[in-house]
Amino acid sequence: MPTAIISTFCLSLMVKLCSSVCLHDSVQQDTHVVSPPNVIPHTTRIIRRSTTWTPQLPLRVTPWYLPGESALLKPSQNTQLQSAMREVIKIISNMLSVHRSEGPLLLNRDMNKYCHFVWGDPSLLNYRRCGSQDASYHGERCLDVVIPDSHLYGYEVWPMNGTEPDHIIPDGTGVPSTDFLLYVRVAQTEKCALQPSVIAYASYCQLDHLGRPIAGVIVFCPNRLRDGVYQHQHLVQVCLHEILHALGFSSSLFEHWIDCSFEGHVCSSRSRVTNTDERGQLRIYTPKVMQRMGEHLGVGSIGAPLENQESPTSSHWEARIMQGSILTASLSPPHLTSLDPITLAAFQDMGWYGVNTSIINHLVWGKGAGVHFGLPSTCQVRLSGFFCRDEGDIGCHHLHLDKGNCSTDEFMDGCHIYKPLLHGGECWLKQETPGLDEVYHPQSRCFFSNLTKEMKREKVKGRCYLHRCLAPNNFQIKVQGSEWTDCPAGEWIEVKGFEGLLLCPDGRLCLGFDRPPVPTSVSTVTPFFSTFPQTTSPGIRVQLSTLVNVKWSTDKKNLLAEEVLGVIAQHAGVQRCLLQASTQLDKELSFVLMVGEPNNCRPHPTGSSPHSTILKLIDHPITYESPHFSTITIRFLSLDSHNKSLSQLGLIIGSFGVLCCALLILAVCWCKHRARLLQVRDTNPAQP
Ligand SMILES: *[C@@H]1O[C@H](CO)[C@@H](O)[C@H](O)[C@H]1NC(C)=O
Ligand SMILES: *[C@@H]1O[C@H](CO)[C@@H](O)[C@H](O)[C@H]1NC(C)=O
Ligand SMILES: *[C@@H]1O[C@H](CO)[C@@H](O)[C@H](O)[C@H]1NC(C)=O
Ligand SMILES: *[C@@H]1O[C@H](CO)[C@@H](O)[C@H](O)[C@H]1NC(C)=O
Description:
Elements: H1 2-17, H2 24-30, E1 46-48, E2 56-58, E3 61-65, H3 75-95, E4 96-99, H4 111-114, E5 115-118, E6 130-133, E7 141-142, E8 145-146, E9 155-157, E10 167-169, E11 180-186, H5 190-194, E12 200-207, E13 213-220, H6 231-247, E14 258-259, E15 266-269, E16 274-276, E17 282-284, H7 287-297, E18 304-305, H8 341-349, E19 354-355, E20 387-388, E21 394-396, E22 403-407, E23 416-420, E24 444-449, E25 461-471, E26 474-478, E27 485-487, E28 492-493, E29 502-503, E30 540-546, H9 554-572, E31 579-581, E32 590-595, H10 610-615, E33 622-626, E34 630-637, H11 641-655, H12 659-682
Parallel strand pairs: 3-11, 11-13
Antiparallel strand pairs: 1-15, 2-4, 4-19, 5-6, 7-8, 9-10, 12-13, 14-15, 16-17, 17-18, 20-23, 21-22, 22-23, 24-25, 25-26, 26-27, 28-29, 30-32, 30-34, 31-32, 33-34
Helix pairs in contact: 3-6, 7-8, 11-12
The structure holds 2-acetamido-2-deoxy-beta-D-glucopyranose (4 copies).
Residues 391-392, 405, 407, 421-422 line the site of one 2-acetamido-2-deoxy-beta-D-glucopyranose.
């Protein structure tokens, strides 16, 4: 079984490599696509959108898990798959909106399939109607998935000249609240077996009257669903990549993209989406794409390049120029990949979607690098700060989270880049370091350096050292045993106690996008008020602030809250288990801290109560270096301004050591806090 051997071998590599081949283009070729009747593709010039104006609302993707197939998976794998799907659907509904159609979604049947012949004589009453059912018709499919009749429109068979149909198949009930129906299949298909690095692949199979895909299928290769802390992000990334193809970023759909930028309710087909530039590179030339691509490279508007190693037309961005985009043919690990502005622009130019441009996204690769960036002829010049030359050279991946190995691949046209190392290159992943002065820690990043304590000369390499953010693009570094040292972006610096130099990267660190991945296991962490025993102590509002913006998913908020509670406990000298957040972190990153006496916690040593200890922290913000979120400042707020002055007073008197006065004032605070806390609770009725 040579295939089996190869796939097991590659499988063990895959999780580390995290790069997957994308089968979308070849799968799409095998997918029969059905459009509504009366839509003649490619010839329509003007398309009516609708007669009544409707607002664009978030795109609702409904996953349809095929019954029975979940039996192929372990329960943990099912959970994993469904939680990845949920996350992707959330990302997409945040990103895209559509003019929704009324009623449940119904899919079309292909008349060429169900109908044996159509009345063709214009003098007939039933001209162009189906005259006879095809005996071999067995319903519709979406790739290999049989579409349930309940999801399909019905059809009628008519006599030559009668006024009643001979035969009626009624409409199905449809799928409610759905703008895109996604059949989810889990199967060890031939494609899974042949391509050992493929985790999932997807295609669309139905279009609406504007050409927008309304149904598709995603197939998961069950052998590739594995356990592991970082596997969730990996699965989310692959799913998102594939679904973005099925929603419109597909070479077979480029000619369906429409221009709806006119006044009124009409759209027109785009005359040309792709074209070849003077160097033979195929590019997408639509208005927003050209504008964003130009802004990214720091030039005027310019078409965005498609992968030239996939013929004839690729559904991926050119790897040399768009490293780190979610839509390149070979994906980097999830923490090094983003939903980039040029991909978002492409979805704007499709004409079907409203795109949420406030989604935080970035593309670091090639930023401001000019019109000649990433050409096979220019990538050999090391000056660019992006490419490298010497194969096997150990440097840093361009986001500086990981060490990189200078290498190339089938999509790079001979250009070399620092690809994340297969093993042990994650500076952000805490691990023991063999000798050297390196530190692997969530707060570490990769730096080009030849720092050494010995007198011998060292080659400049990628090394992991601690860093901390002072402001965007402004940071300090710490080499084991050294002081924190300023690291001006773009300069080589010396470090006290070491020979050699270290390069401070410019435009890469402390800008909010060099975040190490958050382990998925945090989703099971609930730092929030759940089983915490009711206490009589009033809550304290805790306000967090960070130097740089992070996209606050629930996972990240949970992780942050968990971390902050730990820091507070440490500062106040109270046990962690006494503290709980009564609410989720809100938009402003604040929450109400509760101090309790849960059973599983040793009683607090007598003396000052933990609650009053924490109240003393009011007006003393704690600032600390978070391993996951850069610098965090924790402020403790009284629950209203009147209280604040009281507690300030309390603090002053307290610091004079007049204990009984302090207690009196705390008692006043207690009532105020409590009243306010009740308000806070009232506004959060959903809190269990
Ligand atoms: C747009 O994206 C931002 C950031 O992800 C999100 O907070 C907001 O809810 C989104 N808006 C819509 C309409 O989905
Ligand atoms: C069908 O009916 C129309 C009028 O209803 C008639 O003119 C025509 O001749 C009929 N055709 C045939 C083939 O019977
Ligand atoms: C770097 O990549 C080359 C192949 O391009 C490989 O032979 C070498 O072992 C890799 N080095 C490390 C440290 O991963
Ligand atoms: C470090 O590298 C720089 C630049 O290549 C070189 O000038 C210097 O001599 C090196 N220092 C050591 C200690 O190797």
